[in-house]
Amino acid sequence: MTTALVRQRSLASRIWSHAVDAVFPPRCVSCRTFGRFICDDCLAQMVRAEHPRCGVCWKLSADSRCQHCRHEQPAFTAVRAVYAFGGPARDLIHALKYSGVSAVAPLMGEDMAGLLLHWAPGVSAIVPVPMAGLRQRRRGYNQSELLAREIGRFTAIPVAGRAIVRRAGPSQVEQPDEAARRANVKDAFAAGRGPVGDSVLLVDDTMTTGATLDACARVLKSAGAERVYGLTFAREDLKALANGG
Ligand SMILES: [Zn+2]
Ligand SMILES: [Zn+2]
What we know:
Layout: H1 3-23, H2 40-45, H3 67-71, E1 78-84, H4 87-98, H5 105-119, E2 125-128, H6 133-139, H7 143-155, E3 164-166, H8 178-185, E4 189-191, E5 199-207, H9 211-222, E6 227-235, H10 239-242
Parallel strand pairs: 1-6, 2-5, 5-6
Antiparallel strand pairs: 3-4
Helix pairs in contact: 5-7
The chain binds zinc ion (2 copies).
């Protein structure tokens, strides 16, 4: 494609996006007021996933290492999430995942990049958790990859978009409990293409039990990574899991 054509296209797409904004101005994905994808009031309601949490799996825990992680170290070194799942944070994820509002990815990615820069685990590549091909074709994009690309843009850390591949199978959302989630993802992933590096960051939109991140970390370690960290936009704090460490 010639440069002139690229310029023409980008001008056309800019005009188009201005036209779309004029006809459909952005609305808050949570309270539906016009102006921005998330308004200041809803932003203020979002609860950051802060301490006391397990330093490894980021589960609510009075101890720095929860019972589960003391008993069995997950394949990942440590994971973090920016927000507790719920309210406007959940609405942002649902907009990105189920309503096709990919325009919220930059603001979600910026928050995640902010946490990553503060946390500073020292990673040389960002790997998105892959989706099954059919689901991605239906949606048109993988939300984890969009978030990974935004984090990469803010931090200048390269994104290895094909480091893991996902085999077709039932969705994690359909699984009734933690045991079912762990069994469902156990063999769902395989090593993909490209070098992964010694220290890698996995990115996903939501963490529930950490089973998906654990399964992906296992694959990356078998492909040569020594340390695998995980970062999600939100973490679901299941009551049953929050009790007893
Ligand atoms: Zn709002
Ligand atoms: Zn833990």
